[in-house]
Amino acid sequence: MEHLFVIFITVFLVNNFVLAKFLGLCPFLGVSKSLGSAKSMGIAVTFVMTIASVVTWCVNRFLLVPYHVSYLKTIVFILVIATLVQLVELFIAKVSPTLQRVLGIYLPLITTNCAVLGVCILNVQEEFGFIESVVHGFSAGLGFTLAICMMAGIRERLEFARVPAAMQGFPISLIVGGLMALSFFGFQGFFAH
Prior knowledge:
The chain has helices at 2-14, 25-30, 35-64, 73-95, 97-103, 106-111, 114-125, 130-158, 170-190. By secondary structure, it is an all-alpha fold.
């Protein structure tokens, strides 16, 4: 149980996919203009990362490794992620049209989010078991949600700040993202011992 907690804290704070590994920067910068859209994107990414971790672990364990085709994992994982996102989108459209309108564009964007593929590949590289893979995927999604919601909160406040004209918009967002990444690097020293 302690091992799972270490995986959770490590991926959530220390090796945050966005702020330490720099994966998923496109939605991090593109969808973080409002806290509402950031929350929706974070929830959708967390769900897809968790489910993708489950399915890709099973595919790797029961198909790729036994048939000695592990070299195909990147292609197969991309197909699995794209299929999962499509199935989730169809399911949400049937069950809750309101939720589909809220998430609308965010679900298809998850297919191209490299953080989702990154968590699946890291599960294999780290040789995680099933439960470890699920915890890894879930905590990576929560870390993504934390980062994108923090960024959205800061960007919403920046709308009322006096920012020099040359720094408005994307330039100040990059600076804020860099400062957030620096602050999260402080966790590496804290958890190193």
